[in-house]
Amino acid sequence: MNSAQVLSGLAAGLASGGIEVVDLSVTLSPETPVIRLPDIFAQSPGVSFEAISEYDAPGAGTWYWRTIRMGEHTGTHFDAPVHWTTGKDHAANATDTIAPQRLVGPACVIDKSAEAAINPDTLLTVEDVHAWEAQHGRIPAGAWVLMRTDWSKRDSAEDFLNDSHTPGPDSAVMRFLIEQRDVQGFGVETVGTDAGQAGGFDVPFPCHTLMHGANKFGLASLANLDRLPPTGAIIVAAPLKLKNGSGSPLRVIALVPR
User: Fold this and answer.
1) Cα torsion for 246, 185, 165, 200, to the nearest 10°?
2) 117: helix, coil or strand?
3) What's the CA gap between 48 and 17, in Å, rounded?
4) Which residues does the annotation mark as catalytic?
5) Prediction pTM value
């Protein structure tokens, strides 16, 4: 099958419903939880909107639009390598310079939801990856590895942020996924790609430190990972093309065979 036939098959699958488009993003609003840093650090603002016009005189009685204000890392968002000091010297490391083909790739979903329901500080480990691969096959190069925890189902901002007790990857699994599997990036359902207590790990904030240091990406505050199979889905994660962008809110979608 040639490339044209592949694309025709994709279009036919989308039209027939044989391929489902799953939205992995949360809605951005003033209620969207934003990471809370210790008071000694600068804080990211929450989401705010201001009407420019709303079918009134400033819009000739016809159109509606708004200004928006938020940090680059708000809601469902993309982390570019330039976001972290370890990734600042890579070429093409910002949201406007990353090659677009790197924003599309296969998803490998590792389910840690049962563990996270019991222990909010649960970690993804190399042993978890080996167990997953024993069932589903080797993680391919260029894949997005997504850690399912069902954290996105938490109703309130307080429960979602959970006083910085949230699941994430340990340091060893980040090294493994980068060095042994050459993944494209790592995604989570929590407010940031690292565990809430990752500042105290042997490599502090290992997803940020190691993944961006390897010129790879992060996705945070994902939703609906329970609707994805362990393998077989394709992720499209295209951030806004912000000049020198360290990241961006985005609408992540998954193409999933029914």
Assistant:
1) -80
2) helix
3) 36
4) 83
5) 0.96
